[in-house]
Fold this sequence. Notes:
Layout: H1 3-21, E1 26-29, E2 32-37, E3 44-51, E4 54-63, H2 68-84, E5 89-93, E6 96-104, H3 110-136, H4 138-149
Antiparallel strand pairs: 1-2, 2-3, 3-4, 4-6, 5-6
Amino acid sequence: MDDKSETRANRRRLKALLDRAGYTSVHHSGALFGIPSGGTLRSWDMRTALCNGWVSWSIYMLRWPSAPHAAAALAQRVLELNDVMSVAKFSKHGDALTLDMEYRVEHVDPESFENLTNLVFGFAEEHYPELFRIANGTESLKRLEDAFRRPALGGGED
């Protein structure tokens, strides 16, 4: 099978997994899709791909801090988390911190695809507040939390 045929087959296979698992997805290119999801403090746009027999998931978490003390503290915490998480791992790509996971496609059916996708979303939701605080300081997260707690359209509590 040539590269174009393999890419088309991978795209169809991944799209079928996404559809059967009930995810809304956005095709980006080749066998790469985005899975948008709302979160507690922010929305997420997970990228999932199928290539060379591996399904991969990746979520952009936050911008890597430029301040040396914050960068060192974030690196330390990410290493600690990677040591205790069994399947997903945090990675630094340029100035971005991502949460990534790969799984062999022959072990992925629609149910396991949904479970693995939810696992990555869950890890992102669970660890984002702490990592954000380390990278940006506690006060920045308080402003973000307060903004999400404000009632929509100016309605308020009495």
